[in-house]
Structure formats: structure tokens, C-alpha cells
Amino acid sequence: MQVTDAAYEVLKEHGQPMEVQDLLDETLRKLGLDREPKRAARIYTDINLDVRFQYRGNAMWGLKEWLPKSVAKGSTSRGNELSYDDDNGDSEEDEG
Asked: Region annotation Disordered: residue ranges (predicted)?
């Protein structure tokens, strides 16, 4: 199992954001690995690079999927595009 998959499962099971040190400890426990500084640093780096995770501030990490679609960075939903188009395009065309 990949370390990021294990971290994802830990957060999913926890159901809410976790402090990074707790997340690292639980991830290592899930993988049956001892905590070593280099290993913990590598997991932290991998979490930082994985788009499924989101830093919440104050050393807290959560899952991006927990955010509403309209708030998730980089998300584009059909509903958001339609409301954007409705607000900016339709009224100008009707007037012109």
C-alpha cells in the first residue's frame, strides 16, 4: 500500500481534519512502520504533493473531497459555469 493511500484511509476513517503529527503517526501505524525522521518527512512531502489532501491551517490536514465543490480549489462544476455565464453573458446579449 502506498503511504498516501494509507494516509487517505486514516483521514477517511477519522472523518475530520487531523493534526499532521497525529496523521503521520496513524499512517505509520497502519503501515506497520516505525517512526523515523526521514520516513515521516517523506510521508509529509508525499501528502503535500497529493491532490487528495488539503492543508487547513494550524498544522491540520483534511481531504479535499470534504470541501463543497464550489470552494474546492481547481474544481469546475457544470453548475458553477452556468451561474457564471448567466451572470455575465446573458444580460448583455439581451440588451445589445
From this structure: 71-96
